[in-house]
Amino acid sequence: MNKHNCFNGFLQRTTFDFFDLPKNIIISSCNYKISHYSNHFYNDKKIIIPNEIKQSNYSRQAEFLAGRYMAKSVLNKMGFKDVNVPIGRNREPVWPKHVVGSITHTNNSAICLAASCEHYSLIGIDVEELFDEKIMYEVHDIILSDYEKKNIQQGGLSPNLYATIIFSAKESLFKAIYPKVGIFFDFIAAEVTNVCLKSKTFKITILDNLNQEFNSGVEITGYFTLFDSNVFTIVYQ
Fold first, then answer.
1. In 3D, which of 141, 134, 137, 96 has the Cα closest to residue 117?
2. 224: which of 1, 3, 166, 233 fits an S-S bond (Cβ 3.0–4.6 Å)?
3. Using CA atoms, how far apart are residues 119 and 174, in angstroms rounded to an integer?
4. What percent of the chain has pLDDT over 90?
């Protein structure tokens, strides 16, 4: 992962090369340091800060800035000059017409990818820190279906890694298809039916009738990878 610094040490651009993405999907990524954050960076980089973010703590402001700066970088590569990605009424990113995209953050990194609708109809990306035992206990019954619980030892994966992949896969799916369905759906609305460690792929099946396009039985292939203590998942088609 190659790096270079900007924002007076706040943001360190990185080359995200964990996935062999198609060339039509554009990606920008960075690491950032909350300790180096200043709210002046929004004006300096011409990033619009929504009121709800302005009223949040510094950690959220820093996270949002890093993500939206990556979004602006991706759009710039696609020919959109100085275009911001605002927040929609349900806090979703609002992309320019004919663009699909997704943003994800950790407490020290941000990734954005996008593509023209000429090539892809949906994109979702998510990153999660590997679940520890405490988180596993808290979310086990919320995120896993009965089928997923039965397969928690699938493919030689540890239960913690398996559950983290499931959670992240469903987050990526939500980000990818929410612009299409326009409604919130919970974790039991979809089920991961296969996780293959060798190919780093997963199959996720929609269980609810979300709309005419995404109804019960629709299956989507996603991809995952591991880096340090993080799980990355991507869904696109």
1. 96
2. 233
3. 20
4. 77
Q: Measured between alpha carbons, how far is 194 from 148 in angstroms, rounded to an integer?
A: 9
Provide CB contacts within 8 A for 162, sequence distance 6+: 151, 152, 153, 154, 195
Query: Helices 159-181 and 133-143, interaxial angle, to 10°?
Result: 50
**Chain position carrying tokens 């591991």:** 226
The position carrying tokens 């900007």 is 6
pLDDT digits (tens, 9 = 90+) for 17-61: 777 888 899 999 999 999 999 999 999 999 999 999 999 999 999
Based on its alpha-carbon atoms, the radius of gyration of the chain, rounded to whole angstroms, reads 18
pLDDT tens, 190-221?
999 999 988 999 999 999 999 999 999 999 99
Using an 8 Å Cβ cutoff, are 27 and 75 in contact? no
Instruction: Give the dihedral sign, CA 216/130/104/18.
Output: negative
Name the pTM for this structure.
Answer: 0.92
